[in-house]
Amino acid sequence: KKKERKKEGREGGREGRKENSEGGLYVCMNTFLAFGREHVERHFRKTGQSVYMHLKRHVREKVRGASGGALPKRRNSKIFLDLDTDDDLNSDDYEYEDEAKLVIFPDHYEIALPNIEELPALVTIACDAVLSSKSPYRKQDPDTWENELPVSKYANNLTQLDNGVRIPPSGWKCARCDLRENLWLNLTDGSVLCGKWFFDSSGGNGHALEHYRDMGYPLAVKLGTITPDGADVYSFQEEEAVLDPHLAKHLAHFGIDMLHMHGTENGLQDNEIKPRVSEWEVIQESGMKLKPMYGPGYTGLKNLGNSCYLSSVMQAVFSIPEFQRAYVGNLPRIFDYSPLDPTQDFNTQMTKLGHGLLSGQYSKPPVKSELIEQVMKEEHKPQHNGISPRMFKAFVSKSHPEFSSNRQQDAQEFFLHLVNLVERNRIGSENPSDVFRFLVEERIQCCQTRKVRYTERVDYLMQLPVAMEAATNKDELIAYELTRREAEVNRRPLPELVRAKIPLSACLQAFSEPENVDDFWSSALQAKSAGVKTSRFASFPEYLVVQIKKFTFGLDWVPKKFDVSIDMPDLLDINHLRARGLQPGEEELPDISPPIVIPDDSKDRLMNQLIDPSDIDESSVMQLAEMGFPLEACRKAVYFTGNMGAEVAFNWIIVHMEEPDFAEPLTMPGYGGAASAGASVFGAAGLDNQPPEEIVAIITSMGFQRNQAIQALRATNHSLERALDWIFSHPEFEEDGDFVIEMENNGNANIISEAKPEGPRVKDGPGTYELFAFISHMGTSTMSGHYICHIKKEGRWVIYNDHKVCASERPPKDLGYMYFYRRIPS
């Protein structure tokens, strides 16, 4: 039976664009979802849809001329699919031919396309619409698909001042601040100034743009991108990236010879003067002959444009057996029970990605041909070099303004975001994210009465502070800083970098040190007092994730990063951080909640601000965003401080920036009118009020029962923090029969177990661990730079740098940002 439905507007089924993979791609002409050859039969059995369009791209070596070279290029009318050519093949040596036909299941009856004579008009129209449709990602990532830059109208007659400015080959710094990255050379007066952080995902304070507004000089080139082939040129007047046909002459005016400039893959200058100890070179193991690795578990992920944070986290996560079993091990069952639109199902997309990484199908050593038959047919089957996680990224970042953008993100924030998604889409009784979960015991002591309170909270990673004051090479650091400043003043090459060496023991000591509790209210005094807090492990996880807190702020509040070396060991013992609970002689603080007091003069303003989020002061939001903070965090800061200005909102950010949901989108608990907003904010919610669903979801994602979360929120006036305290302090809580546990509308709902564990699920054990993976960051901010991952497999370290997977020769374990340890059984 042939489908005659006109589907001109649907593009979702063409996602993946795997027409040139072995077997091609089958597009369902009813749903317009696309499937590989190994999965189309499953879709047919599940849905009964019988009509598919089979798309395939053939790759052949070009016919050689008499002189041995390829014949002259000509327009290839045999290519009609919107598909990029294979990057691994030289387009001068190979030619492509696209093939399309209709296939009728289950008999696999084929109808060649086009076939106007035999097919009904509506079927022909639908086929033409599919064949001419553009990839949906060309709309999502317009910058990634830019074909050709326009020539600037200012290039031919650009004025260049004869002011004697000469640009050195290194040691660049913004003329108005201390930034050394994202620097732009104005081609009129030779000024070196920083750009905006959101222009190309690099940090900056916008001084290059300010200079243009002051002086009107239109063109600037980005330092570090200059090569003999060109450079990144931006026109402030035209407000876009442009081409400068006379760039070599314009650069020579300032003493820059394009023919002797070499840019690295990451856009940084790589010349003889640059020290060979920069973190970019050390972390990527530059200059070493790294042996490529192929096969199952050695598949890379192509960079979609600042997606390396996602790639690094997913490589580390799928090296864990529990995640491999939960998704790839359950592939047939997950695919069989996936919803009709599997692109919108988390477990299906996780399984698809995991299978791609672990199967080895997309990581094969390069060979010219595999079978003699292929040679006889003059057909070449290109080897796969990594996979493109477009569909996975589109789903997991859906509705998240930061992760859905093309900007660089924090790998630690994405890791917690992923854990949250795994928790919310649990399959069966086993939850793979349980291996990361542990309990933290927090001990708060009133400094005046010496009374204490013990509470527990759930966490998924250990945040380890950098103890800069404990550097073991302080004399070398002081000497290096003096030499560096002198070189800058005299415009000489910078000295070889000296990196602070920090003992891990000092960082662990800093983690266990008491810290002051801001705005502490003592229930013993019934008043505010000084308080201190210490944290210990109430349980040790099966897999310990350690984040080094390298990112901070300078005196000018510009985000910066500690470029330090920490001696992270292969074997880690943190048993001494085990919580001990209430000790003999300690007296507990009374279980009394502080009174809620809100000044009358600000009550109305706060009410109004929380009722209508559309009134958020966007100018304050942008001021904060330009400092490098995530956009959603800036919106929340301005919202929750009642539009009282960027300075007040900045203080809110500093207090809340370590929270797991810091960059999550703004949600309004209790929003829906003045009455509900007032109840939520001022604690006036009665027991008959339903708690905000957003807060209920947060608590249930930690492993607690839904009815338990609702009861705790009702008992604490919908306060998330106090509700968690209530849950831990009421272990005798019994399940109320009046509550109904609601099942989310999940595609795999029929294989989700109804049995839910009591309390947070933890896998406690000894606190001795072995390092098996670490993620490293290069750059000055989480909003810029590059991530790569090292994983220990089969007894040796392997480096995963986007799509490139190689055996590591010198893994930089001392420069990591996130470390993954597995427990050593006792």
TrEMBL record:
<dbReference type="InterPro" id="IPR041432">
    <property type="entry name" value="UBP13_Znf-UBP_var"/>
</dbReference>
<keyword id="KW-0677">Repeat</keyword>
<feature type="active site" description="Proton acceptor">
    <location>
        <position position="786"/>
    </location>
</feature>
<keyword id="KW-0597">Phosphoprotein</keyword>
<protein>
    <recommendedName>
        <fullName>Ubiquitin carboxyl-terminal hydrolase</fullName>
        <ecNumber>3.4.19.12</ecNumber>
    </recommendedName>
</protein>
<keyword id="KW-0378">Hydrolase</keyword>
<comment type="function">
    <text>Deubiquitinating enzyme that removes conjugated ubiquitin from specific proteins to regulate different cellular processes.</text>
</comment>
<dbReference type="GO" id="GO:0008270">
    <property type="term" value="F:zinc ion binding"/>
</dbReference>
<feature type="domain" description="UBP-type">
    <location>
        <begin position="150"/>
        <end position="258"/>
    </location>
</feature>
<keyword id="KW-0833">Ubl conjugation pathway</keyword>
<keyword id="KW-0479">Metal-binding</keyword>
<dbReference type="InterPro" id="IPR050185">
    <property type="entry name" value="Ub_carboxyl-term_hydrolase"/>
</dbReference>
<dbReference type="GO" id="GO:0035523">
    <property type="term" value="P:protein K29-linked deubiquitination"/>
</dbReference>
<dbReference type="InterPro" id="IPR038765">
    <property type="entry name" value="Papain-like_cys_pep_sf"/>
</dbReference>
<dbReference type="GO" id="GO:0043130">
    <property type="term" value="F:ubiquitin binding"/>
</dbReference>
<comment type="similarity">
    <text>Belongs to the peptidase C19 family.</text>
</comment>
<dbReference type="GO" id="GO:0031625">
    <property type="term" value="F:ubiquitin protein ligase binding"/>
</dbReference>
<dbReference type="InterPro" id="IPR001607">
    <property type="entry name" value="Znf_UBP"/>
</dbReference>
<dbReference type="GO" id="GO:0006914">
    <property type="term" value="P:autophagy"/>
</dbReference>
<dbReference type="GO" id="GO:1990380">
    <property type="term" value="F:K48-linked deubiquitinase activity"/>
</dbReference>
<dbReference type="GO" id="GO:1904294">
    <property type="term" value="P:positive regulation of ERAD pathway"/>
</dbReference>
<keyword id="KW-1017">Isopeptide bond</keyword>
<dbReference type="GO" id="GO:0006508">
    <property type="term" value="P:proteolysis"/>
</dbReference>
<dbReference type="GO" id="GO:0005737">
    <property type="term" value="C:cytoplasm"/>
</dbReference>
<feature type="binding site">
    <location>
        <position position="177"/>
    </location>
    <ligand>
        <name>Zn(2+)</name>
    </ligand>
</feature>
<dbReference type="InterPro" id="IPR009060">
    <property type="entry name" value="UBA-like_sf"/>
</dbReference>
<dbReference type="GO" id="GO:0004197">
    <property type="term" value="F:cysteine-type endopeptidase activity"/>
</dbReference>
<dbReference type="GO" id="GO:0006355">
    <property type="term" value="P:regulation of DNA-templated transcription"/>
</dbReference>
<dbReference type="GO" id="GO:0070628">
    <property type="term" value="F:proteasome binding"/>
</dbReference>
<keyword id="KW-0832">Ubl conjugation</keyword>
<feature type="region of interest" description="Disordered">
    <location>
        <begin position="1"/>
        <end position="20"/>
    </location>
</feature>
<dbReference type="Pfam" id="PF00443">
    <property type="entry name" value="UCH"/>
</dbReference>
<keyword id="KW-0862">Zinc</keyword>
<dbReference type="GO" id="GO:0070536">
    <property type="term" value="P:protein K63-linked deubiquitination"/>
</dbReference>
<dbReference type="GO" id="GO:0010506">
    <property type="term" value="P:regulation of autophagy"/>
</dbReference>
<dbReference type="InterPro" id="IPR016652">
    <property type="entry name" value="Ubiquitinyl_hydrolase"/>
</dbReference>
<dbReference type="InterPro" id="IPR018200">
    <property type="entry name" value="USP_CS"/>
</dbReference>
<feature type="binding site">
    <location>
        <position position="207"/>
    </location>
    <ligand>
        <name>Zn(2+)</name>
    </ligand>
</feature>
<dbReference type="InterPro" id="IPR015940">
    <property type="entry name" value="UBA"/>
</dbReference>
<dbReference type="InterPro" id="IPR028889">
    <property type="entry name" value="USP"/>
</dbReference>
<dbReference type="Pfam" id="PF00627">
    <property type="entry name" value="UBA"/>
</dbReference>
<keyword id="KW-0863">Zinc-finger</keyword>
